[in-house]
Design goal:
ten-stranded mixed beta sheet; single chain; alpha/beta; binds nicotinamide-adenine-dinucleotide; 12 helices
Length: about 350
Amino acid sequence: MNYRIAVIPGDGIGPEVVEQTLRVLDAVGGKYGHSFEYVKALAGGCAIDEKGECLPQETIDICKGSDAVLLGAVGGWKWDTLPGDQRPERALLGLRKELGLFANLRPALLFDELADACPLKPEIVEGGLDIVVVRELTGGIYFGEKGTTDTDLGPAAYDVEQYAEGEVRRIAKVAFDMAMKRGKKLTSVDKANVLESSRLWRRVVAEVAEDYPEVEVNNFYIDNAAMQLVRNPKQFDVIVTSNIFGDILSDEASMITGSIGMLPSASLAEGNFGMYEPVHGSAPDIAGQNIANPMATILSAAMMLRYTFGLGEEADCIENAVRKVLADGCRTADIAREGEKVSGTRETGDLIVQAI
Ligand code: NAD
């Protein structure tokens, strides 16, 4: 099969980690008889420099004309003094909106080889940790009505949390489908004891659950979920929640696994279209030094194969290759312990390609 991928390397370490990821994709394509066509596009600080805006229309068109998008990272010190609405990171919000990316998938997987990077006690994570947080990405308080007003206590500001049944239903379906492919356990997180929008959320999730009788569902309040994630994270399989709660919980869940250089993500639209990117940013402090960990981006490409292209075996092949090089002792600086040999970005890419 032929697949067309819009590639947005972005800024900082983005181009370095994306370069290794394309080599890995080519290796998998060669092994399984697929060809990946890459169409490069600009977004972020480099787009501001070259085109005067962080998300040129041409980039949106390239993404819309592709089967999936692979993104490195955007942003950097050079553009930090620009006003908020002109900063490189605005490109991410623009891409989510333009591409209709309403579901954000953030796996938190603790690799056995990196177990001591986990900040929790060993007995809490013994036997491994494998959670996916499914976060609603285009609704809720981040996109609701906002403004300022006057009150008896002085000027006030407000942001409205609002969810339509259809928005909850579509994200719930993504989460239930995910649970069906995994451990068949879904935890929906809300604040239904206080918020009207959460009560609607909970009711719609219960309705969708009727179509998935095999999935065990439970409901947690956000405060309890945040606590349980560090107390007993192994109880979770798939977690589904709103934009703001998911923002916080997905960071919490992923940090339990240790290094930011290992964490992939996917943002999905209706159908199978998706944008895939590492959780980390452009890391300007280490850019251009060949020391960034490319694994988060490489694992994001594995998610692309699995969720957008339906190539589960090929995705497993990449994930197993990453596991193998870790087991063989490959460590970039961010995950190396004192005294361990450190591999550079390119060398890590070489080893993963060889393992494939
Ligand atoms: P960051 O994730 O870029 O870096 C945080 C720390 O983690 C740094 O010390 C960095 O060196 C390290 N790190 C990150 N990725 C790494 C990797 N692959 N290998 C090894 N070490 C790695 O976060 P930040 O410093 O807060 O942000 C830097 C810039 O990136 C900012 O402009 C920010 O707005 C932007 N940003 C972009 C995205 C994105 O494009 N999705 C996400 C977050 C931050």
